Amino acid sequence: xxxxxxxxxxxxxxxxxxxxxxxxxxxxxxxxxxxxxxxxxxxxxxxxxxxxxxxxxxxxxxxxxxxxxxxxxxxxxxxxxxxxxxxxxxxxxxxxxxxxxxxxxxxxxxxxxxxxxxxxxxxxxxxxxxxxxxxxxxxxxxxxxxxxxxxxxxxxxxxxxxxxxxxxxxxxxxxxxxxxxxxxxxxxxxxxxxxxxxxxxxxxxxxxxxxxxxxxxxxxxxxxxxxxxxxxxxxxxxxxxxxxxxxxxxxxxxxxxxxxxxxxxxxxxxxxxxxxxxxxxxxxxxxxxxxxxxxxxxxxxxxxxxxxxxxxxxxxxxxxxxxxxxxxxxxxxxxxxxxxxxxxxxxxxxxxxxxxxxxxxxxxxxxxxxxxxxxxxxxxxxxxxxxxxxxxxxxxxxxxxxxxxxxxxxxxxxxxxxxxxxxxxxxxxxxxxxxxxxxxxxxxxxxxxxxxxxxxxxxx
Length: 460
Hints:
- By secondary structure, this protein is α/β, with parallel strands linked by helices.
- 48% of the residues lie in helices and 8% in strands.
- Helix 16 (371-397) crosses helix 17 (405-415).
- The longest helix is centred in the last third of the chain and has 27 residues, at 371-397.
- The radius of gyration is 28 Å and the shape is elongated.
């Protein structure tokens, strides 16, 4: 049950703002300020695994789609997809064994998650930026007016535009019937009757259900439990790896690691008592930070997905095989800085080749999505941090006024490695690529191999 006692209703403008993980006050969507209801009843490991693998389909989509911002596991529904435009999608996953047959409308409302989705949508104040998805592996009853017809009438642009009012009334009656046995705070209680058509329909309830159907998608895309792993690897992960031009990825091990990461986010059993206290406390304010931390632990971002990639032990060539190496543009400022640092000409020439190796690798393996610049910034900060530490060390060893560039370059070669990075790179690199990025950053005047000087003035 969701208890919002002690809090004022959220204005619609706030409900439409997009959460931004990591920010000081990133829990801005009303959805993430509602503590989710605790699931009751026993859940099998198979159900949890299947739920995680369905969530993995959306997580993997983040690799090639920049419209998805992040995903929160086990929050109100089985998972929530947050989009960069500020909208969110509550997703309920329902696995059904093959011998149970297709879903009927009555079963979708009773045990198929439809009533639960409606209740959660109401808890989100029916905000215009909240969408809903019921994802199931089972078929829908094809009889006229049954579950398959319902699916074709859902969404903002339904395949069957007529008859929505009658369908909404039928769904409303089924939900009111479910409410007799199960407590849903956002569904009104009505007297029990023998026949469905005798239910006393509360004023405006059928219209509210009609609005609910307009933001609902019923999807039968998820494969059966025994096939979903292979389908996700072959149809989603492998094409994403190929599109991103990532080399030496062990796709099966990577997929297992991603699903296990989602399962850890799903479990998060550590603070159930804390959540209960949050719900019980009408003040609620002093638990907001903890609630934010809980959401953070359940959040899957694009960076987290990249961190779970598993690579084979094959040695990555510095220049891609089978093509002529590209020469990086620029290089004049790097050359002047290396000369000021008193590096030998052969080491300077080697530095320029490594800069071209980095340029070739980055040009071919970047995804082309908005996240590229963030990936490059994070990697560049790690490289610069190492370069500055190497310069400080080299300067202390040099006699007053003498050049320290050669010693600094030796330290960079010694210390700048993939294993020493604070976080793994966005795609497979070797240590020489990192040195190439360092020389590129030097050419862009982010650091010097000597005391700083005006590189433009020397050129003139």
